[in-house]
Amino acid sequence: MVTILTIVIGVVCIFYIITVFVTKNNGNLKYSKNDSVSEISYDTILASDITRKNGDYYVLVYKNSDQYLTLFKSYISKYVALDKHSDVYYVDILDALNQKYYGENNSFDVNNLVFNDTTLLHMNDGNILDIYDNDEVIESYLKSLITNS
């Protein structure tokens, strides 16, 4: 009986020593949680949701490679800071979930939307009111939103 107890204690001690040696923490194993913050974006939508919003709103469909994108987002930030403004949503057309809406030629049929480049849509209850599909035109319109509001 004593020999079995001695063997069990010896085996436990050997496992403990090996564990301490391998982890090099001298037995001070601590759980550390990685403090990462998840962020939900309520203004980024999928291309399939462009026509599913109510009220008056804008959708900037963009490609990250567009050299004007930072400027457009700056204008939009100024616009949404105004007291009276419509909602603005963003669609990254090169996102994998939006692949079916990216193509060679633009199509603005609400049942078959296809975008080739950065486009600003003025929408109301899922219907397209205005289309701005040229960088200079988008810039000019966004400027007018800020100055005329």
Key terms:
149 residues, alpha+beta, four-stranded mixed beta sheet, 17% strand, elongated
Structure overview:
With 149 residues, the protein is an alpha+beta fold. Helix content is 32%, strand content 17%. It is built from three helices and four strands; from the N terminus they run αβαβββα. It has helices at 2-23, 69-80, 135-148; strands spanning 56-62, 87-92, 119-124, 127-132. The chain has a four-stranded mixed β-sheet with strand order 2-1-3-4. Strand 3 and strand 4 form a beta hairpin. Helix 2 (69-80) packs parallel to helix 3. It is elongated, with a radius of gyration of 29 Å. It starts with a helix and ends with a helix. The mean pLDDT is 86.
Molecular shape = elongated
Secondary-structure-based class equals alpha+beta
Say how many strands there are: 4
Mean pLDDT: 86
Number of helices: 3
The fraction of residues in strands falls at: 15-25%
Rg (CA only) = 29 Å
Question: How would you summarize what this structure contains?
Answer:
With 149 residues, this protein is of the alpha+beta class. The protein has helices at 2-23, 69-80, 135-148, and strands at 56-62, 87-92, 119-124, 127-132. The protein has a four-stranded mixed sheet with strand order 2-1-3-4.
What is this structure's SSE topology?
Elements: H1 2-23, E1 56-62, H2 69-80, E2 87-92, E3 119-124, E4 127-132, H3 135-148
Parallel strand pairs: 1-2
Antiparallel strand pairs: 1-3, 3-4
Helix pairs in contact: 2-3
